[in-house]
What we know:
- The chain is an alpha+beta fold.
- 34% of the residues lie in helices and 31% in strands.
- It is built from 5 helices and 8 strands; from the N terminus they run ββββαβαβαββαα.
- It has helices at 49-66, 92-98, 115-130, 166-187, 191-194, and strands spanning 4-11, 19-26, 32-38, 43-45, 70-79, 101-109, 136-142, 147-154.
- The strands form 2 sheets. Strands 1-2-3-4 form a 4-stranded antiparallel beta sheet, with no helix packed on it.
- A hairpin with a 4-residue loop joins β7 (136-142) and β8.
- The N and C termini lie far apart (57 Å).
Amino acid sequence: QRQMCIRDRYKEEKIGINWIQAEAKAENQDDIFQVYARNTGLFKDSYHITFFKEKLYNMIEPLCQEKKYIKKYEIDISGNLSETKWTGKEDIDEYIKKEEYTIEPMIYLENNQTDEQYAEIISDWLMTLSKLECSMRVLVKIEDLNIVIFDEEFESGEKNMNEYTEELLKEEINNTRKNSNTCLLYTSPSPRDRSL
């Protein structure tokens, strides 16, 4: 049985007919989880991630630490809204196959490398992550510049990380960089700010 204490009971923000949204907090934890309930008894929540978050993190962090080309990294893991009644006693492999989570490893690479070098690095990184056999969104940024050069979602059975050749990655890097630069144009500081 899920042990949660409701923080904000019955928010008036409703999703569809007779849906009630609330926020739940696990005892002795800071994370806030979304809960959706319906008067028919249907119940969805993202609390299940508390059972498996540490295990998922411990699967990915060693991979980040062993790669010398990774200057720093961030690993964001969250639960998706689910009707599945997880207890935490299930095997991690069972949870991974269900794909009721979102994993976003973001790595930062050194600046001043060619697209060919970045493509080679990302290819190696994808090959490494593919061994985990779980869905995730993979992000790669250039350190200092804060520019995203790779951003792709992989779901089991849909996109295979091994299908990304270095040639394809170079195209992807170029397209992603163009999109990042376009976004920067809309959010760039004024000429006066640039001179500071």
